[in-house]
């Protein structure tokens, strides 16, 4: 989406302790917090594994990882007690690719893009019909939208809203 996310790992070292060619901390070094080169290099590899794994799984697909999702994945990677890097990548990729290709129908509402997941019906009498959509960029939330929100507001209606409008794949992904 043309957004850049820049962060720090929270581990600092002196410039002379960094091996630029290998992109790791030189052996037998400790920083001012007492973190060893092995600990810092482990963190670097962990975050790199997550970021590159997400990128690799999304290359060639129509799904784009939003800044918020990448931020969360990196945060999870830095919190080493959460999960293995592979689990973080899988969770992230599943969140953005959980929609089958056969449902490639897109909508826009108030500048946000969504992909159609499925139709739904409220189980109670008079409950109505809905569409389940997934936000494509940002938090990638799934939302339930009443069918009325896909139609223009009826004349004389006292409620105003911006309808969900069907858009092309080209408009969504800019290709």
Report on the structure:
This protein is α+β, with helices and mostly antiparallel strands and 175 residues long. The protein has two domains: 15-97, no CATH class; 101-170. It is built from four helices and seven strands, in the order E-E-H-H-H-E-E-E-E-E-H. It has helices at 37-58, 67-78, 85-97, 169-173; strands spanning 18-19, 24-25, 106-109, 112-121, 129-135, 142-146, 165-167. The strands form two sheets. A five-stranded antiparallel sheet has the order 6-5-4-3-7. A two-stranded antiparallel sheet has the order 1-2. A hairpin with a 2-residue loop joins strand 3 (106-109) and strand 4 (112-121). Helix 1 runs antiparallel to helix 2, helix 1 packs parallel to helix 3 and helix 2 packs antiparallel against helix 3 (85-97). It is elongated and about 75 Å long. The model is unreliable at 98-102 (pLDDT under 50).
List keywords for this structure.
alpha+beta; 175 residues; 2 domains; five-stranded antiparallel sheet; elongated; two-stranded antiparallel ribbon
Net shape: elongated
The count of domains is 2
Largest sheet entry: 5 strands, antiparallel
Secondary-structure-derived class: alpha+beta
- Kindly estimate the percentage of residues that lie in beta strands according to DSSP: 15-25%
Helical content stands at 25-40%
Number of strands: 7
Number of helical segments with 4 or more residues = 4
Distance between the terminal alpha carbons, to the nearest Å? 12 Å
Mean pLDDT across all residues, rounded? 80
The helix/strand series, from N terminus to C terminus, equals: EEHHHEEEEEH
As residue ranges, the low-confidence spans are 98-102
Question: Widest sheet: strand order?
Answer: 6-5-4-3-7
| Rg over C-alpha atoms, rounded to the nearest angstrom | 22 Å
